[in-house]
Amino acid sequence: MDQDTANRLYEVGGKLLFLNAPERLEFGIDYNAWTIGPLFKGVKLIPPGLHFIYFSTTSKEGVQGIRTGFFKYFDVSEVAVREWNPKTEDLYGENDLDPSQVDRYIINIRDFDRNMGPYPLDPPTYYQRWQHLTNHITPGLVKRILPNNGRVSHLPASTTTETETANDDGNDDSVTGVVDNNPPTKRKGQQPLEKEEGMEFTAFDLRQSFPAGATGDQVTKWSLDKSWLAKDLLERVYRGDHRLLLGEMQLAFVCLLMAQNFSGFQQWKQIVHLLCSCRELVHDHPTLFVDFLETLQDQLEECPADFFRDILSENNFIASMLKNLRDVIPPSSTALYSKFNKLKRFLQKRFQWDLPDEEDEEDDEDDAPVVVDLDDSY
């Protein structure tokens, strides 16, 4: 990055003071992680917008602790201050900090400049990937779903498959440490936690996908076609804006990907299941599903192959959901078909996984053995 560009970014970029953190703390923002040294004081040149900051301690034996983080929406030139609490091995709450001291830090922010690492924008693809992964998440969504100042913790379930961490080359730098450009993965040997409070994902029951007082025919119809439930949520929760629904889907996925949060995983699966089960809504609102497939592909592009095999394909979840959606796409919706076929090609190339065509499934049924019930008298 040349000096002129750095100067411009310094004026508009956000800054995060991260004070008194211990050495060898894993510290990350979005797709970049460092093992910090004693001089580290935070990050500068943060592009305005939504970011996820996370951290975890490392024991003397080199065992990584539980990852904790928070979402933060940075306004232009905003300075955020966080301080480490050695007693809890966590951050002090924002309300626990002395407001006058925080104001002094902000006024004298340039005094910390030499000890603040720049937000990595080279190569630019990492920031672009982060933008694609979060482009529908609004500050209002974060505030509603994560009311505890955007905080989210690693929340595994006993049934979740553990994945190995990326190899660490052991190098260290006195300020910023080593950048890990791979999405963080779950640490081995961690124990399941109790369900974390402070996560308020939109609650809905896929088994109750019909209106109150529905007739028997309506119960049957809307149990098979989840369009009524999706429309109700869009109008009642998301103010008619399907991008907010996709924003919650993105927020849930990032909670899973970056913090290995099981509540995020469950909500993500719920939303995918809902949107892949809406025959009527696909006809009425195809743009929603074009955007949904684009969002889903952006997310699957961030998943390593073993993650897809062990978690996303559990009980053939992705396969069955995409087959459901394919079967309800109207033939006239060329844009939606094009987006669906693009996702199919991606799955085949990245994961060597084929979604059978409808014709192939019909052929398989024709070739299946015929079962004949024999009369007991024979």
Shape: elongated
Query: Percent of residues in beta strands?
Result: 5-15%
Report the count of strand segments. Answer: 10
Category by helix and strand content: alpha+beta
Distance between the termini: 85 Å
- How many discrete domains? 2
Total number of helices: 14
Major β-sheet annotation? 5 strands, mixed
Strand order of the largest sheet: 8-7-1-4-9
CATH architecture of the largest domain: Alpha Horseshoe
State mean pLDDT (0 to 100 scale).
82
CATH level 1 name of the largest domain: Mainly Alpha
- The level of helicity is 40-55%
CATH superfamily of the largest domain: Aar2, C-terminal domain-like
Q: What's the alpha carbon Rg, rounded to whole Å?
A: 24 Å
Which stretches are low in confidence, meaning pLDDT under 50 for 5 or more residues running? Answer: 156-195, 363-378
Question: Which fold name is given in CATH as the topology of the largest domain?
Answer: Serine Threonine Protein Phosphatase 5, Tetratricopeptide repeat
Return the string of H and E elements: HEEEEEEEEHEHHEHHHHHHHHHH
Q: What features would you highlight for this structure?
A:
378 residues; alpha+beta; Substrate Binding Domain Of DNAk, Chain A, domain 1; Serine Threonine Protein Phosphatase 5, Tetratricopeptide repeat; 2 domains; five-stranded mixed beta sheet; five-stranded antiparallel beta sheet; 41% helix; elongated; disordered C terminus; Protein AAR2 homolog; AAR2_C_sf; AAR2_N_sf
Can you describe this structure?
This protein is α+β, with helices and mostly antiparallel strands and 378 residues long. The protein folds into two domains: 14-153, Substrate Binding Domain Of DNAk, Chain A, domain 1, CATH 2.60.34; 216-364, Aar2, C-terminal domain-like (Serine Threonine Protein Phosphatase 5, Tetratricopeptide repeat), CATH 1.25.40. Helices cover 41% and strands 13% of the residues. The strands form two sheets. Strands 8-7-1-4-9 form a five-stranded mixed beta sheet. Strands 3-2-5-6-10 form a five-stranded antiparallel beta sheet. A hairpin with a 4-residue loop joins strand 7 (79-85) and strand 8. Helix 7 runs parallel beside helix 10 and helix 10 runs parallel beside helix 13. The chain is elongated, with a radius of gyration of 24 Å. The N and C termini lie far apart (85 Å).
